[in-house]
Amino acid sequence: MKSVQCNAFGPLADLVVAEVAEPVPTGRQVVIKVEAAGVNYPDGLLVQGLYQMRPELPFTPGMEAAGEVVALGPDVSNVKVGDRVGAVLQLGGYAEQAVVDERATFPIGDADAAETCALLVAYGTSHHALKQRAALQAGETLVVLGGAGATGLAAIQIGKIMGATVIAVCSSAEKQQIARDAGADHVIGYDALKEDIKRLTDGKGADVVFDVVGGAAFDACCRAMARNGRLLIIGFASGEIPKFPVNLALVKEFALVGVFWGNFTRAEPAVYADNMQELMGWYRSGQIKPLIEGRYPLAEAAQVLERILNRGAVGKLVLAP
């Protein structure tokens, strides 16, 4: 089968598509014929050796996949051949087939495979961030940085379901329209971020900030927080990990809250399962709708990752083996 291979940590352009043996499941593993593999920001960091973990080389990136189950390990009890499932992987999604423990899968029926991938990391991260980490309440104001990205669009839609007033922050007119179409109440740019947040909240500031950007945007948001606000630290798409002046948290009485979805799924599997059930319910009822910008062949994995790391993507991008 064909698989995207990282043979050495380094430039994304060094990724290659290779012929490798089909996976053989053991224990409670299942093999999925991949219809769609989600492409995520951390995938690019992994390939470059810049992520929190460094897998053994060579490896195949890809932390989410969806498709049909084609083989079972001897101890599988809850999945059968022919089932269509979504799955969270450690690695291995960028391939024609992927192997995963059955406990990391969930049934998707006739749901679109690409949209299922979006529900995993992007919507899963935003949901966990707003529900468990921020405890977002109806009537609060939520500011979403990177509002046209996959996690940003998810945060807009989920924030509206939870009853918040949503201010989306986007870098271009095109991206601002995408955030507006997703349901944001207000859409602004980054140039006067602190002033715009203050203006739109009548001077109170943001109750919750969803920050996937870091850098100067983080600095501005620190100065535009409401008392008892929660600033969610999710990522650093700007490439700059900011330094935090802790006196601001003291005088403004707001909290910095870290969000690491992968750690959450491992530490609280039952809560994670409940979250996915709620997300799938919202998806099937039409309350959330992932934006799939494009579906690309495995051979274009490096180019797709470049777009995501350079903040050129909107919505979700997937590989379709």
TrEMBL record:
Keywords: Oxidoreductase. Its EC number is 1.1.1.1. It is an enzyme of class 1 (oxidoreductase). GO terms for molecular function: alcohol dehydrogenase (NAD+) activity. It comes from the Bacteria. SMART domains: PKS_ER. PANTHER family: QUINONE OXIDOREDUCTASE-LIKE PROTEIN 2, SHORT-CHAIN DEHYDROGENASE/REDUCTASE. This is Alcohol dehydrogenase. It comes from Thalassovita autumnalis.
